[in-house]
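Q: Sequence in, structure out?
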Amino acid sequence: MMFTRMLRHGFFCLATCAVLVASASESPMREWRFTVSLDGKHIGEHNFILRERNDLRELTSQANFRVRFLFINAYHYDHHAHEVWRGDCLESLDARTDDNGEELVVSGERAELGFRVTSGEAVTGIERCVQTFAYWNPRILDARHLLNPQTGEYVAVQVVSLGRETLGKHTDAQRYRLIGDSRGKPLRIDLWYSPAREWLALESRTPEGRTLRYSKE
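A: Exactly. Output:
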């Protein structure tokens, strides 16, 4: 049980919110792929497709993780989400998650008085212009709250700059740390961007000290 709880707290924002890597391409449809590792061991993939039409952007994401322990599947995670954006504001959200057998369904839509989120039997109204943990859009670095599409929680966050460093072929990557608290658990996600603000990588430490990482294939 402790192993399962650790993974849930570690994955909740990485898997549901790590959205996509920016690209110089301006085609109507773009696709990105991430490999996901836990303490350096490959555990799955997270793939994304972005379609643009007029002033709307439609994003679909699919994550599938399997963690094995002594040749047994100790944990599984499957997540599918569809988001529609207008500019930097979320218009609608539909997400379904199988978190090691626990089924989670979250939906939301932008209305005149605010963004309405439905999670299970709970319905919550929040401010009208909402952003998820959309790392593809560097505007989230200025956000004070971000919506978790797995749980429907509106998380208070703070972003701090950690300076420039080398990341692979990028010698001047800018590193940021996103800090928050989710349901009594600390949240810390490190993000790397190029000087052109292209998202390059993501890494997070679980409360138990294990390392989760998203990398480009």
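Residues 69 and 75 are 9 Å apart (CA to CA).
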